[in-house]
């Protein structure tokens, strides 16, 4: 897994909470890791994908929060929301939260995983379950607490061509600033041929290249690359 350090502001090592909606700036020890890989090994074949994201900042109370994440899959990657192998979840955010995802059809559930939130200094580690559902030209991400701490969160990843862009709001629970620091999600291979939900795109020099572009609530930005082996 590739790890890069990011200097978000000149005042390294200072955490700024309040004044900017409870946003945290990164210290010089902030790191962000991203590894997104396709499960297929050949262009034009049905595929799933695995995403592993992790941020940490030992020099601050908590890592800076994410505002937008754009994952760009290999050129010509196709998402088919009209595939009969899936159903679209048309439930509202309120319904999804209230039912912990049961308001979405079983065939709309495309992935599962885990997540971790940081509510430091009160609760630095909040483990959560993660699930992904197919919506209308978007992927719906649902995070639910594994224990008594945490809150139910619904995020939407808009899909356009080979890009998935997810907006992450500022999360505040009872005056406590909460940051999502880790996500491990597996989206399974669904359907076959032209009916596949996701079809792998271009294989370049033996690799499926994926980029993850992070925009943080602090205003800092970072782009990381990951890849998996493939053949044309």
Biggest sheet record: 13 strands, antiparallel
Mean pLDDT: 89
Order of helices and strands: EEEEEHEEEEEEEEEE
Distance between the termini: 24 Å
Overall helicity:
under 10%
Shape: globular
- Beta-strand percent range: over 45%
Count of spatially separate domains: 1
Number of strands: 15
Uncertain runs? 1-22
Structural class: mainly beta
- Helices, by number, come to 1
How many whole angstroms does the radius of gyration measure?
A: 18 Å
Give a short overview:
The protein is mainly beta and 232 residues long. Helices cover 3% and strands 47% of the residues. It has one helix at residues 93-99, and strands at residues 3-5, 31-38, 49-56, 66-72, 78-79, 109-119, 123-134, 138-145, 153-160, 163-167, 171-173, 176-187, 198-199, 207-216, 221-229.
What does this structure look like?
This protein is mainly beta and 232 residues long. 3% of the residues lie in helices and 47% in strands. The protein contains one helix and 15 strands; from the N terminus they run E-E-E-E-E-H-E-E-E-E-E-E-E-E-E-E. The strands form two sheets. Strands 1, 2, 3, 4, 6, 7, 8, 9, 10, 11, 12, 14 and 15 form a 13-stranded antiparallel beta sheet that branches. The two termini are 24 Å apart. Mean pLDDT is 89; it is low at 1-22.
């Amino acid at each position: 897994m590739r790890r890069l350090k990011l200097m978000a502001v000149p005042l390294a090592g200072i955490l700024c909470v309040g004044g900017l909606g409870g946003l945290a700036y990164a210290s010089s020890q902030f790191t962000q890791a991203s590894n997104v890989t396709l499960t297929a090994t050949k262009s034009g074949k049905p595929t799933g994908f695995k995403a592993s994201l992790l941020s940490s900042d030992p020099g601050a109370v908590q890592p800076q929060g994410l505002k937008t994440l754009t994952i760009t899959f290999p050129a010509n990657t196709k998402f088919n929301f009209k595939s009969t192998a899936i159903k679209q979840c048309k439930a509202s955010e309120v319904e999804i939260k209230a039912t912990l995802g049961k308001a979405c059809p079983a065939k709309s559930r495309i992935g599962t995983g885990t997540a971790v939130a940081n509510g430091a200094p009160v609760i630095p580690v909040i483990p959560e379950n993660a699930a992904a559902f197919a919506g209308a030209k978007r992927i719906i991400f649902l995070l639910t607490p594994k224990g008594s701490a945490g809150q139910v969160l619904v995020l939407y990843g808009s899909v356009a061509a080979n890009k998935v862009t997810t907006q992450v709001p500022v999360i505040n629970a009872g005056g406590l600033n909460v940051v999502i620091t880790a996500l491990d999600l597996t989206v399974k291979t669904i359907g076959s041929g032209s009916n596949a939900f996701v079809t792998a795109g271009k294989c370049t020099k033996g690799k499926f290249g994926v980029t993850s572009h992070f925009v943080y609530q602090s205003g800092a930005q970072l782009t990381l690359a990951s890849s998996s082996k493939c053949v044309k």
